[in-house]
Design brief:
The relative contact order is 0.16. A two-stranded antiparallel ribbon has the order 1-2. The chain starts with a strand and ends in a 5-residue tail after the last helix. The chain is elongated and about 45 Å long. The protein has four helices and two strands, in the order E-E-H-H-H-H. By secondary structure, it is mostly helical. The longest helix is centred in the middle third of the chain and has 19 residues, at 42-60. Strand 1 (3-4) and strand 2 form a beta hairpin. Helix 2 (42-60) packs across helix 3 (68-81) and helix 3 (68-81) packs across helix 4. The chain has one domain (22-104).
C-alpha cells in the first residue's frame, strides 16, 4: 500500500517512521494543572481540550502550519458558540502551556 504525505504529496517509504510522539491527554492535563495559578474546572478543561484536539487534528493536520494565537481564537469562538464562558486570556494561557509541552516533548511543532 502506498502512503502519501498530505502536505508534500510525495510518496512516503513504507519503512519510514514519522511523528513518533503521541500526545497523552492525561499527561497534558497534569502538566497544565501543575503550571497554572488558578483553578481550572473539569468542564473548562474538557472544553479547551476538545477544541484543541479538533484544531490540532482537523485544521492543522500533520505537519501543518499555524500561529499560536489562532488556536486560542478558534477554541474561544467554539466555546462561546456553546454558550459557555471562559475568558480568552485563560484559554490563551492554557493553550500556550499545551503547545509548549508538545514542543518540549518533541511533538509536531
Amino acid at each position: 500500500m502506498k502512503r502519501i504525505d498530505l502536505h508534500t504529496k510525495k510518496v512516503v517509504p513504507a519503512d519510514e517512521i514519522r511523528y513518533t510522539y503521541s500526545i497523552s491527554g492525561n499527561l497534558m492535563k497534569d502538566y497544565v494543572c501543575e503550571n497554572i495559578d488558578f483553578n481550572l474546572s473539569d468542564v473548562e478543561w474538557k472544553l479547551i481540550d476538545k477544541y484543541f484536539g479538533e484544531y490540532w487534528n482537523n485544521i492543522i493536520g500533520i505537519g501543518g502550519y499555524f500561529y499560536w494565537d489562532e488556536v486560542t481564537v478558534f477554541i474561544h469562538d467554539n466555546i462561546m458558540e456553546e454558550k459557555q464562558l471562559i475568558s480568552q486570556e485563560r484559554i490563551k494561557f492554557v493553550v500556550e502551556l499545551m503547545l509548549t509541552k508538545i514542543e518540549k516533548d518533541g511533538g509536531f511543532l
